[in-house]
User: Fold this.
Amino acid sequence: MGTRQDRYVHGMRVVHDGPREAPPLVLVHGSGAAGSSWGPVVPALAGRHHVIRIDLPGHGQSPPARSYDVPGQAARLAAALDELGVRAVTAVGHSSGGYVATALAERRPDLVGSLALISSGPSPDALLAQPLFLRTLLEPPLGPLLWRVRSDTVLRRGVTSVCHRPVDVPDELVADVRGIGYRTFRTVLCQNGAYIAERSLPARLTALDVPLLVVFGAADPRWDPASAHHYATVPNARIEQLPGVGHFPMLEAPEATGELLLHFAATGH
Assistant:
């Protein structure tokens, strides 16, 4: 197995795990997170794949960008993958990372062999009333104050507020989340909303000829779990719901999530 390697490519932190000659699996985190959010599933995936984790601009250890629109982030991701020399990747996006992965497939179909979306809301009308702590963290006057404090307790609570099961938030993720700015997070959320408001994810994916896996926690407090079935209109889509799991399947059910991703990467369904 290849050793872990950290590097910067086109202004984004990239972490490699697993054999470099193995089929590439690209993991894209969601808003307010980082590549380290995938930590619990990486060991299982890296046994069979060259796992590539990206810290999107303004997240984790990647510096801020001038713009956070989804197509622009996908363009930067494409440039990074070009420099890494990988093709036909299995692109896996968590939450809004699924929007960046979808936009990557839209812009550069040569780079994406298959897509897996985890907890990616299909359209704005699927968004639920958000958990109280998350709303407090996002809205003034308390949001900016809590964001400036950035204690471990606040940061861990921000992650666990959208989980259904008790989770042990990785220390590396807590450290990476600390670097995200309040304005950056709010701007990213706005741009994500604009992307799916312009055209829903199922509509975008229907226009793409790419195998698709959709994974939802059946107890997701951010997106209506029933909205996972909106993806049934997409050809070649496989939909899986994980009972008793919230918005972070890779933290709440890493073994089940890893098994789904391994099977999908190997078979395309």
